[in-house]
Amino acid sequence: MPNFRPIFFVNGILLVFLGLFMLFPALADFSADASTENWQVFLTASMITCFVGVSSVLITRDRPSSLTTQQAFLLTTTVWLVLTAFGALPLYFSNYAPTYTDAFFEAMSGLTTTGSTVLTDLDEAPVGINLWRGLLQWLGGIGIIVMAIAILPMLQVGGMQLFKLESSDASEKILPRATEVASVIALIYVCFSFMCAFAYAAAGMDMFDATVHAMTTIATGGFSTHDESLGAYSSPYIHYTSVVFMILGSLPFVLYFQAVRGRPLALFRDWQVRWFFGILSVFVGIIFWYQHSAEIRSGSEAFQYALFNVTSIMTGTGYATDDYSAWGAFSVMVFFVVMFVGGCAGSTSCGIKIFRFQIMYQLLRVQMQKIIHPRGMFTLYYNGNRVADDVVSSVMSFLFMFFLCFAGLTICLSLIGLDTLTAFSAAATSIANVGPGLGEQIGPSGTFQDIPQVGKWLLCLGMLLGRLELFTVLVLFMPAFWRS
To answer: Most exposed of 60, 177, 270, 442 (fewest Cβ within 10 Å)?
Structure first.
């Protein structure tokens, strides 16, 4: 059995931080109206969370010096589950989420930056609730980046070992320790958040909306303070501002650091970034053309709606300016495909991710060359470097397991009574961490409120699997994991 003391210690520290962040919504509600009990809800949840966190730290007595691979797997999964369980408390105590299941679903959707919601009447919700939802996604976004940089490459999950910070070539080392890299990238993340908030305010948002939307935009989360999402704003400046920062949140944050350190061209030379913009341009062009041909919109308006909604879904943000599922069957299929793409590794975006499509393309190219030249020797390359066989097998295993989990989740959702489109899109949007599904019930103009409670727990599992790259969670169910 593994030593659980480091797991309790780290979870305890993070719970204390989560509890302290609950004080911000408490102050916001107190400032808005001290006579209500809204601020007391967050204060109570903060005290409970901090108490449990401090107790967990004290139980361990000393700080762990290192983590084994087994402990790292356990820690990665338990952190998301524990923080979600306590992050749901303010939503449940306030009665804004009808049941704890709804509160857990909302918190899981927030911390995994999925963006699916069960809440309605957001325009009338207390400021603390909307601020807390934004904070959950903002904290989840920075946690995802740190995990992708410091943990997943070590665990060799889904080909992420391709992005190890150190290599045999000293010139490729970014910083000697992953914690130092994470701290600098966190600073960049904070700077982007401030830039986004000021840009939204300059485009016409009030400062509170600008702050919340900045947190959920840079985290590619998609929670909004309005039921209509960013469709509540008719300003194209707000929509284009959102597009810029959704894209910034979907690019590798390590490359931003390299740009700051004097290598600005690294961002544009990276194969992931080039493919990301290429794929995005293709889908935007398809939806732009379709709106013209179907006489839905034309001109600059058609481009604005195509660019915003395709970027939102592909990056996994989940904002919407219109119910694109009502545009016709063709647009439904296009957006369904876009859900799976995702952004770049080392960003806040999820989905399959661009680099896996690149590895798969390289593998197919090599296989075709071997058919033409059976005696030839061919090698896979990524960013000019040779790709090891273990990376290729990890990527292919991930793709197989991704669609296997998607199929299994779809079948389970169908068994509880959901129609085909709802089951398919709900499974896709949860495991790809996108947010809205397709159709009237869970589409951009709907919510997940009417999904049965069993279905909400299934979708929470899908969000967790998608966010933690599947194998990080699934390996815990193997008996051999606990014996090794």
So the answer is: 177
